[in-house]
UniProtKB/TrEMBL annotation, chains A, B:
GO molecular function, one term: hydrolase activity, acting on ester bonds
Descriptive protein name: Putative phosphoesterase CYL18_08825
Protein EC: 3.1.-.-
Keywords: Hydrolase
Similarity remark: Belongs to the 2H phosphoesterase superfamily. YjcG family.
Length: 171, 171
């Protein structure tokens, strides 16, 4: 079973991101706009309870933090993804690190560049058109993130939330 | 802002439901298969924190319970919805009641008939065809439900999870 860990930003930021994803991101229908904290990993339904316990401890140990959108950027020449770049501030980077330990799996398929995807699998022509439009626009936005989510993938490729973890909550 | 409260059943049951929803349910792309516990209600982002606190208390007071799929059924003649009927056992009915109090909003647009929608907005002809096929099939399934989710709706009609509540957890 495929699992992943992500942040859903505010409705406002999700709606903004979706207004681009609708046209430019084939994953638009599979998952709401999100910042990936841990890429797809496989686990069993049994083992996920152990992982959930670890995530609960991590979430308590880290405080809510500011998510800041910096600008529109791209992963070219690696791939034709356009995204909103998120400030890799210390809190976000430390949380990402905490989710890549021995017991949760250390493997990082990519260097951590926190982002909200707004387009992917674009042709070079589309890519350059879209990027041309968007780099003229200002994306200045800040908000507080106080939670992250553990999700699993259904057979049709969509993602369902398994559990939410609140940062800094000592229940 | 629109909110709702729902149960996501196991991946197995979601995948089964989606195999029908894909063809027969226009909401297929908006939300994973779910059992609605509280229909759409409006709230502000500020007030939802108060509601979240109430939901946490409710979730602690109710234990995990068995969700049992009984059969394929329909809301005809009210509307052309086909669904998997869920056994309205005492635990599920009591949880539903707990989510319809004075402080959470008592309004119930429908009598509570717990179900997993597999088709909706079908023509009478489609309805009778699909129902004819499905009533021949056995849907016997039981599983334990140990959580429910508070969700909010984005401008494009899709739903994002705000928070998960674990039943019977005394943290």
């Amino acid at each position: 079973m495929n699992f992943g860990i992500a942040i859903f930003p505010s409705k406002k930021l999700q709606d903004l991101t979706n207004s681009y994803r609708k046209r430019y991101d084939a994953h638009y229908k599979l998952i709401p706009p999100h910042v990936t904290l841990k890429s797809t990993f496989t686990s069993t339904e049994e083992d996920i309870k152990r992982i959930s316990t670890i995530l609960k401890d991590i979430s308590k140990a880290y405080e809510p933090f500011t998510l800041k959108v910096l600008k529109v950027s791209t992963f070219q020449p690696i791939n034709n993804v356009i995204y909103l770049k998120i400030d890799p501030n210390e809190e976000l980077v430390r949380l990402h690190e905490a989710l890549h330990t021995e017991e949760l799996g250390k493997e990082k398929p990519y260097t951590f560049i926190p982002h909200l995807t707004i387009g992917q699998n674009l042709s070079d022509k589309e890519m350059s058109d879209v990027l041309g439009q968007l780099t003229l626009m200002k994306f200045e936005h800040e908000e507080i993130i106080d939670r992250f989510h553990l999700l699993y993938q259904l057979d049709n490729g969509t993602w369902t939330v398994y559990e939410t973890f609140l940062l800094g909550e000592d229940l």
